[in-house]
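Re: duplicated header lines in exported structure tokens

Our pipeline writes sequence and tokens for each protein into one text file. With two proteins the header for the second block appears twice in some exports. Here is an export where it did not happen, for reference. First protein block:
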Amino acid sequence: MSRAYPEQDQQVFDEHRKLLFSVAYRVLGSAADAEDAVQDAWIRWSADDRSQVADPKAYLARIVSNVALQRLRSTQYQRETYVGPWLPEPILTSGDTADDVAGADSVSTAMLVVLETLSPLERAVFVLKEVFGFSHAEIAEAVERSEAAVRQVAHRAREHVQARRPRFTADRTRQRDVTRRFLAAATGGDINTLMELLSPDVTLWTDGGGKVRQALRPVVGAKTVAAWFAAIGTVSYQGVEPGDMRAELAEINGGPGVVFSGQGRVVATVTFDFDADGHITAVHNVANPDKLGAIAAGTARDLAP
């Protein structure tokens, strides 16, 4: 085994760490699991004979993809038996992610929710092909399938995603403006403005994971969703009184969102889907404390491919 240059091995790995996390997070939808997958990839990389590795980037991507795929399969039952809607673990992202429109879309809450409907293999293949541009041959090696099989899986996954992803979305400036207005209206209890910002058939998805009290089914309709958020300034939420609740704009998963915090902890995040006119078509509210660690850490990540 090649162990002569451990510092060089570490340097090569660190050069590709962002890529490895970006792949693992999109495959897993969990920052904590993605970090574990990157750590597992380091262990395998440091133990392998790297003297025969011609392309470290492809080699490391293959390792982390395989690790993430195995981890995703092992969590399938847990996600199938999850209490209430399952939403991805939100993360803070940097401006570089938002500036890359395709990259921001691929890490958005809406996209990760769609990816959750794929099989683990379809999800890994889609991420590697459509987001990171790996060849079918490289992906075949990563997921241990034939190239012909990978081509079929890639085609199936792409059609599945295209059929379910949002068709149109407002530009980034419009999204940020609507998010600011939504936050002001919600914290001010302005139900009329909320109604103006919401699409008539808007859907609110709340993820408490059985750890905190949340709606166990989607909340549908502008009037109901507006009333839900207008109550923020008048009732306590997870033991935090309205006067102690702080709401801040943040870039979450490549787009504008809101972080709610109080009593020294992050309480929840909210992200949105928008139509071409800038109306909010879906709201994703994550309040499961097990999923708020990456937000609480306060580190913004660049997840652009």
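Second protein block, exported in the same file:
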Amino acid sequence: MVTIEWAALSATDLPAIAGLAGRCAARDGGLPATASPSFLERRYVTDAAVGAFTQGLLVACGAVRPVGETSAATGLVDPDHRGRGLGSGLLDRLAAEPGKVRLETESLTPQAHELFLARGFRQTFAEDVFRRDLTRPLPDVPMPAQVTVEEWSPLTEGAFHQAYSASFADRPGFPGWTREQWVDWLVDDEFLPGCSLVAFEGDVAVGFVTCAEEFLVQVGAVPGWRRRGLARALAVAALGRMREGGAGQVFLDVNVNNPASAALFGGLRFEKIARRARYE
């Protein structure tokens, strides 16, 4: 019989957490960054972190961290130790934290989904993670004849925000960010201005694509330019620039309520590798 010992976790347990995250990612898929030390430190080095050990091996861990007025909970269970009650035991510990608890997962499994629902949680957000091998050929997708494109720069930043707002204003949950809010969310050390493009028809911004290292962040076209190949052309142009910069793969997220985008990227030979989700 396997003996399980639960214990509080600290920063000294990060190597063990990283090992567990790597084993989970190998089975469940997901973004490589979610198994990185920096990501795991932000999620699991908290005052409310707990782990399950068997013979010194960390086989499950979870943590709760404050996010505004909510507590966000995340957890991992070793693939070789699932089906033994570790997930439910971990969830019971995390959900017992005071206040409202939101569950977050970077690689949702059917078993986790059923467990969350059984414990009275409901899914409030889900998006699929896609990956494309950039060593494979890209399709030849010319930009529409009446469209010109420019890279991200201080001079085009405003046009990018205009295209972003006009492209996504009718999407469910659109935050309506100001230019400053959007740029603050978008631009960091991994942002790729040379691969990020804004499309113009005359002097009007009609579409855009933004990129970070190995990541296609956003692609959009204003309503009058949808289903005319603009978003596809912008995506392919950005992918080509990323490949020229040395990237061998690229990832992106697509909300599950956006089948048009899922079809667009499926047609560009992106493959779904995981589902991210939140429950409350």
